Amino acid sequence: MKYQVYADNAATTRLDEVAFEAMLPWLKDNYGNASQPYSFAREPKKALAAARETIAACIGANPEEIFFTSGGTESDNWVIKSSAFADVDRRATITSAFEHHAILRSCATIERLGYPVAYLRPTADGLILAETLRRIITKQTRLVSVMFANNELGSIQPVKDLCAVAHEYGALFHTDAVQAVGHIPINVHDLSVDYLSASAHKFNGPKGVGFLYVRKGLDLLPYADGGSQEKGHRAGTENIASIVGMAAALRENCNAIEKNVQFLSNLEKRLLEGLREAGVKFIRNGGANTLPGLLSLSFPGRDGEAILHRMDLMGISISTGSACDSINTQKSHVLDAINLEDDLAFGTIRISLGRYNTESDVDMIVSGLSRILNT
Ligand code: PLP
After folding, report:
1. Ligand 1 pocket: which of 80, 145, 202 to mutate (most atoms <8 Å of CB)?
2. How many other β-carbons are positioned within 10 Å of the β-carbon of residue 110?
3. Predicted local distance difference test score (pLDDT) of residue 142
């Protein structure tokens, strides 16, 4: 294939060059185990501490509030399960119907074990409103978990308001911020969230590494028992190269966050204008406040899967929904949750632009879509 346009950055992103370079020494020369007492372990130990500080600074946290994990899925599983099992008095969890499956399937597991879970319905614009939470929250609620931004729609949630309602009832608040960290400014202390999940490969870091923010003073049952890594809460020899790469990638993205937001908003505008000028009929899902560069577009009466495959033949990668669902051709649970009618839901694609995309990529996407949809 001559030219490849990658427009599925919500599924994963290209590794940042600085992050790549930062990882190399820890893969080759400085391969010591950070838990050992001798001098060869000193450098890896320092690298872990520095990465923790960098990550904490990027989200307004303290270093001791950052726990390294293998990614968003692990961070989500950890919070949902540990939180449910930790409190015998407050047993209930509230989440939303359009969370990522890392949350939904963790909730299904705790439900099977007898812990009640309630699911908040989003509005047609893909928002979980504080008043919706207020209607069902009780003093039995232990944890409220609502994602920062939806991975199919890009809709950014009113996290601060939701968190305030949770706290009013004495519940803790978790947000799966996998799609948002490194893309839009986030400050955990301003928001008052208790737990936050993030994943490096969504912000130009390596795959298989992420972190969980746990507010100081809160405890969680250990995710993995064993050695004393991560204060005994997540045992196992640390993946130093990946953790260092994650910190470097997050720092690079956060240092350029305003610039990236502007750049992606311009690309997004160009894409939408291009489609309109080409006479393509579409509706955009997700409301007015979406992640920059993430577009959920529905083409009435068309087949999203077929569009994806025809775009692929042109060397353009887009998605119909979340990456984990690409083998599942049923109606997406997210589009179902916002009550999108079948005619639109089955004709929906997700285009997610990233900082490595160019105007010419966008023009190729527009021309590909108009060739498919104007025939
Ligand atoms: N949460 C959200 C909102 C996601 O979009 C994803 C990945 O698509 C995950 C969690 C899972 O993250 P990871 O791939 O790091 O396990």
Report:
1. 202
2. 19
3. 97
